[in-house]
Write a structure and sequence with these properties.
alpha/beta, four-stranded antiparallel beta sheet, Immunoglobulin-like, Rossmann fold, six-stranded mixed beta sheet, 454 residues
């Protein structure tokens, strides 16, 4: 069966700027189809939209699929599906037909495929129900449904509960979709198929690609687990790895702050097996929005399994940064080569007395878009008896932001100059105690006062 599932998940959907999220990489593999006999039902769409090139390419792909399964199970020499595996063909339009029972005869399977004729509606519920009815409930064989379709459901009931029931009973479902005249619904195929979607759903707009998709799927189903596995995880520039647990199988190593290499000698050689790797990443950027955590994940093994991982994103919420008091403009100074003295005119500045500068940041919570804010900061100094003495008042208008949702706004660098002459301390260089109070009100509002009692 080769690699049967691969996934990448995050433990949360959103984080604050500088926050962390746990990432889980998961991989599942199953043994060779020779040692793990499998019953496979090919479910093929013969609705009217399949007429012409689509049905011809589907037949070629389905027959190539049958040949690969026959060769992989050792039955090609006598025209059979070998090693205890079997296949069946179900075709469907407005209704579904079991064109063969589960059989090991390659000729019977190919003949059933050749006899398919396009015409009618699309009844996926009947197709799934008919396919499920072909499996032997007492058989120990693995069970697989390969659904091929080119359109949306236009007849019959809802197929989703039937597909879900099949998966709950251990049936693995693959879906191959052709973007036909009826329009394929990829989200629906993802719902029907086994997880993860990336390894169980394939869609193409070109009929000429159908045979290749069948071929790749057959190759993955028949492979013998995986050996000498190497997974290289590379984070996007907005994230850094802060911690990593050793995986449930194999070993993992941090190559740098944004790269992990995970190696396994084998997975799923003798029985179905899964492996997990968990690590925590920290956001280091300064902008809000949806951010994909990984730049890429590279996979390789000795068997050549084709494996892809999802690229999940986390919503990063950063405060809006406002700097109402910018730093003074600098004076440029140039020093020539070998010079040990330079005279600089630093301009003019008001002389200040000795003392200290108090610089404060404050975050205004949940400011909605299009709303200006009036902010006041009041500073007092405490004397030895705890009495408060006014030392400063700053008021400022904070401009509105244009983000979609309400955001925190960080107001930076509110400065108070405290000359030594204002100090209540006894003597120079003694400690001083202050209190800072901040007040904020909305300037803009939708409120309109009722006029004349109306």
């Amino acid at each position: 069966m080769g690699i049967t599932a691969s996934n990448k998940t995050l433990d949360r959907l959103s984080i604050d700027c500088g926050g962390s999220v746990k990432v889980t990489l998961a991989l599942t593999a199953a043994p060779d189809i020779i040692t793990n006999p499998t019953d496979i039902v090919l479910v093929l769409d013969r609705s009217g939209s399949m007429a012409g090139e689509p049905i011809a390419e589907m037949k070629a792909g389905a027959k190539q699929f049958i040949d690969i399964i026959s060769e992989s199970t050792g039955g090609a020499a006598d025209g059979s599906i070998g090693s205890g595996s079997r296949m069946a063909v179900v075709s469907f339009a407005g209704t579904a037909t079991a064109d063969t029972a589960l059989t090991d005869s390659v000729d019977a399977l190919k003949s059933a495929v050749d006899d398919i004729v396009a015409g009618g509606n699309t009844n996926h519920a009947a197709a799934f129900t008919t396919a499920l009815g072909l499996f032997d409930p007492v058989s120990s064989n693995a069970k697989v449904i390969v659904m091929f379709t080119d359109g949306k459901t236009t007849a019959g009931g809802n197929p989703a509960p039937i597909a879900q029931q099949a998966k709950s009973e251990g049936v693995i479902i693959y879906c191959i979709g052709l973007v036909g005249t009826d329009g394929i619904d990829v989200a629906t195929l993802n719902l029907w198929a086994s997880d993860p979607d990336s390894t169980h759903v394939a869609v193409t707009p070109n009929p000429s690609d159908i045979a290749e998709l069948f071929e790749e799927l057959a190759a993955n189903i028949t492979k013998a687990g995986a050996t000498d596995i190497r997974i290289l995880e590379k984070l996007n520039d907005d994230f850094r790895i802060s911690s990593m647990q050793q995986p449930s199988r194999g070993t993992a190593e941090m190559l740098d702050q944004s790269t992990i290499e995970w190696r396994m000698d084998s997975l799923g050689k003798d029985e179905p097996e899964s492996a997990l790797l968990e690590f925590v990443v920290r956001h280091i950027g300064d902008t809000s929005g949806s951010r994909e955590v990984n730049a890429y994940v590279d996979y390789s093994d000795n068997e050549g399994n084709i494996v892809s991982f999802p690229s999940p994103a986390v919503d990063v919420r950063c405060p809006v940064v406002v700097t109402p008091e910018p730093c003074p403009d600098p004076v440029e100074v140039e020093v020539g080569g070998c010079a040990d003295f330079v005279l600089v005119d630093a301009g003019e500045i008001e002389l200040g007395s000795r003392g200290c500068v108090i610089e404060a940041d404050v975050t205004i919570k949940n400011v909605c878009p299009g709303r200006r804010v009036a902010l006041a900061a009041v500073l007092t100094e405490l004397d030895a008896d705890g009495g408060e003495h006014q030392r400063g008042l700053k008021t400022m208008l904070i401009p509105a932001h244009d983000f979609e949702n309400c955001r925190d706004m960080l107001v930076r660098c509110i400065r108070f100059v405290m000359p030594e002459e204002l100090s209540l301390a006894d003597g120079r260089c003694r400690g001083r105690s202050f209190r800072l109070r901040c007040f904020a009100d909305l300037v803009d509002t939708d409120f309109v006062c009722c006029a004349d009692g109306n």
